[in-house]
Amino acid sequence: MESVIFSNNISFDLSKYLNQLGYSQLGVISDSNTSKFCYPIIEKLLPEGHKHFSFPAGEANKNLNTCSQIWQWMTDEGFDRKALIINLGGGVTGDMGGFCAATYKRGIRFINIPTTLLSQVDASVGGKLGIDFNGFKNHIGVFTQPELVLISEIFLQTLPLEEMRSGYAEVLKHGLIQNANYFSCLKIADWEKQNWREIIEKSVQIKREVVEKDPKEAGLRKILNFGHTIGHAFESFYLNTDKHLLHGEAIAVGMVCEAFLSHKKSGLPKEDLQIITDALTEIYGFFQFFEADIDDIIKLCSQDKKNEGSTVNFSLLRRIGNCDYNIKGTAEEIKEAISFYQSLTSQVQLNQ
Ligand SMILES: NC(=O)c1ccc[n+]([C@@H]2O[C@H](COP(=O)([O-])OP(=O)(O)OC[C@H]3O[C@@H](n4cnc5c(N)ncnc54)[C@H](O)[C@@H]3O)[C@@H](O)[C@H]2O)c1
Ligand SMILES: O=C(O)C(=O)C[C@@H](O)[C@H](O)[C@H](O)COP(=O)(O)O
Ligand SMILES: [Zn+2]
């Protein structure tokens, strides 16, 4: 598996590991925001002559068109197989930059410097790389591990609060699927003043322990996908609309729906369902959508990568801290889960 370094001194560590890894050419990929906020932090540490590619920020650009531009840039710069790529950014940069590196000339090495909470706790680790395709999340991709993941909280200083909250959904997921004690200790009193280091380390540890046992998602790794079957469907459906959801926000909706399915199908106690819905709705509120969208959202679940044939496979909780996978679900059950989510909104309105 990849090495993960929690860095207290990004200048020192980056220089050290770049020297250790060695390369013929060095390229940095970042998006428009990380080019502005994060590239200046590392630029001065990089050798003169390194190359930099910047693409417009956002999930809407995690696609083949941007990949094509990245591959063209690599080609124009004459990158050979000993070139090294640094993905400097959130999950979009890591997933897409990694995918481009892993496929360019059948694969060149890359390192991840994650700059969002979400990518520090989840996306930068584990080697799932890819892009969205024709409205389907991460539909095209590969499993390839980065050479190194270098995590520094210094980058979080410029990250908007809503992005911190989005990343926190994956933290809650890690507790829910693997560690009830961790989940129960998670409480952010002050988002601005929170010391994130322990949380990042714990989440990375949980994710790595799972990935180590099942790097290519033959079985166990599917638990990392809790909340994602329905969550991804919401994320995809509302991408490019004025209702678009951040990844973590969509996964929060998905986790409420799939916690309901866990109660219905996997024995998750009612009290646990209540704890989960309370925790998630307190942070993420209630996403409002139209009844008329539901059938299309359900259809999107049929393209989930955990599925076998026409059967939708869920990862569901038996209790907080314990997740099962390959639980078959029907369109009717997905509808019921989404209705449960909607019913929470109306309960709140009634209580107001
Ligand atoms: N490969 C995996 O295992 C994995 C895991 C989880 C999520 N993902 C993917 O990751 C993506 C979501 O990741 P994300 O939330 O990091 O999204 P992102 O990469 O789009 O980053 C979120 C926003 O924050 C900005 N940003 C990043 N770092 C910043 C900084 N330090 N200061 C200011 N702005 C900054 C970005 O420009 C962007 O606008 C999704 O595509 C999701 O599918 C992948
Ligand atoms: O690492 C994994 O495995 C995950 O499922 C982590 C998820 O948080 C992440 O969003 C991942 O990209 C989803 O993968 P997908 O296979 O459902 O596209
Ligand atoms: Zn995710």
From TrEMBL:
<dbReference type="Pfam" id="PF24621">
    <property type="entry name" value="DHQS_C"/>
</dbReference>
<protein>
    <recommendedName>
        <fullName>3-dehydroquinate synthase</fullName>
        <ecNumber>4.2.3.4</ecNumber>
    </recommendedName>
</protein>
<dbReference type="InterPro" id="IPR056179">
    <property type="entry name" value="DHQS_C"/>
</dbReference>
<keyword id="KW-0456">Lyase</keyword>
<keyword id="KW-0028">Amino-acid biosynthesis</keyword>
<dbReference type="InterPro" id="IPR030963">
    <property type="entry name" value="DHQ_synth_fam"/>
</dbReference>
<feature type="domain" description="3-dehydroquinate synthase C-terminal">
    <location>
        <begin position="167"/>
        <end position="307"/>
    </location>
</feature>
<comment type="pathway">
    <text>Metabolic intermediate biosynthesis; chorismate biosynthesis; chorismate from D-erythrose 4-phosphate and phosphoenolpyruvate: step 2/7.</text>
</comment>
<dbReference type="GO" id="GO:0005737">
    <property type="term" value="C:cytoplasm"/>
</dbReference>
<dbReference type="GO" id="GO:0009073">
    <property type="term" value="P:aromatic amino acid family biosynthetic process"/>
</dbReference>
<keyword id="KW-0057">Aromatic amino acid biosynthesis</keyword>
<keyword id="KW-0479">Metal-binding</keyword>
<comment type="similarity">
    <text>Belongs to the sugar phosphate cyclases superfamily. Dehydroquinate synthase family.</text>
</comment>
<keyword id="KW-0547">Nucleotide-binding</keyword>
<dbReference type="GO" id="GO:0009423">
    <property type="term" value="P:chorismate biosynthetic process"/>
</dbReference>
<dbReference type="Pfam" id="PF01761">
    <property type="entry name" value="DHQ_synthase"/>
</dbReference>
<keyword id="KW-0170">Cobalt</keyword>
<keyword id="KW-0963">Cytoplasm</keyword>
<keyword id="KW-0862">Zinc</keyword>
<dbReference type="GO" id="GO:0008652">
    <property type="term" value="P:amino acid biosynthetic process"/>
</dbReference>
<comment type="function">
    <text>Catalyzes the conversion of 3-deoxy-D-arabino-heptulosonate 7-phosphate (DAHP) to dehydroquinate (DHQ).</text>
</comment>
<dbReference type="GO" id="GO:0003856">
    <property type="term" value="F:3-dehydroquinate synthase activity"/>
</dbReference>
<dbReference type="GO" id="GO:0000166">
    <property type="term" value="F:nucleotide binding"/>
</dbReference>
<keyword id="KW-0520">NAD</keyword>
<dbReference type="GO" id="GO:0046872">
    <property type="term" value="F:metal ion binding"/>
</dbReference>
<feature type="domain" description="3-dehydroquinate synthase N-terminal">
    <location>
        <begin position="54"/>
        <end position="165"/>
    </location>
</feature>
<dbReference type="InterPro" id="IPR050071">
    <property type="entry name" value="Dehydroquinate_synthase"/>
</dbReference>
<dbReference type="InterPro" id="IPR016037">
    <property type="entry name" value="DHQ_synth_AroB"/>
</dbReference>
<dbReference type="InterPro" id="IPR030960">
    <property type="entry name" value="DHQS/DOIS_N"/>
</dbReference>
